[in-house]
Design goal:
With about 300 residues, this protein is of the alpha/beta class. It is built from 13 helices and eight strands.
Length: about 300
Amino acid sequence: MAALRAAVPVLALLGLCPGPAAAAAPLVIWHGMGDSCCNPVSMGYIKKLVEKKIPGIYVLSLKIGSNLIQDMENSFFMNVNEQVSEVCRQLAQDPQLQRGYNAMGFSQGGQFLRAVAQRCPAPPMLSLISIGGQHQGVYGFPRCPGESSHLCDWIRKTLDLGAYSKAVQEHLVQAEYWHDPLKEEEYRKNSIFLADINQERGINETYKKNLMALKKFVMVKFLNDTMVDPPISEWFGFYKSGQAKETIPLQETSLYKEDRLGLQQMDKAGKLVFLGVQGDHLHFSEEWFDSTILPFLQ
């Protein structure tokens, strides 16, 4: 998460306006690829920032594994369905979350938390804030965060060789949200994570009901993103099927038109929020976070 280190200015010395502590629901955070729960310049920074501006709020930054190294490694190599199950277990056992919580996912953590909302309604997720999450997946891996470039080179080669093979799907996180618009049938048949949560193989009414229970589903798109391909996936759009040049917004996708996830109903009810922010992937200022994101937590 070098992006956060470089992009978030140090404004902690400025006066902060706390929200009402008693009214703030707990917050659950899930980090992105190559990061960990408690990195002091990324998720640790965000956790402290929220706690400072909303005194008394309970913030849980998810850790997948027994230590920070495992947490980072699991963001590349642990089956996403197993990660989601582990998170659901953590949330169910946390007494401070039982009356409901808000969720904030950074990059791939955005779609992973959406899976939690769809699969694990207890304790209830109140609102979901996806910051750069790729809800229609990715078809490209142009750049990598931080010190993970050697891993990304290997991941690119693996995805090119066989993203939808069983071995790759089971053991490479990024393959599990790889969405090839030139191989839609193969994607629908063999994607073990994204195709499932996006109702590509049939309608799971429980998924739909659980997602529609959200009060708000906020999607943040980085307007100068060089990491996510295509960037419109951050707003649940994607390439037109059968080619990889022209993109379409969520409202023109079959997922929306057929309302397989209830997104059309949520949109009409004002539950979907589409936000754009200038900057590359996960580059944002504290002022923007304070004025744009914090109100959804208070």
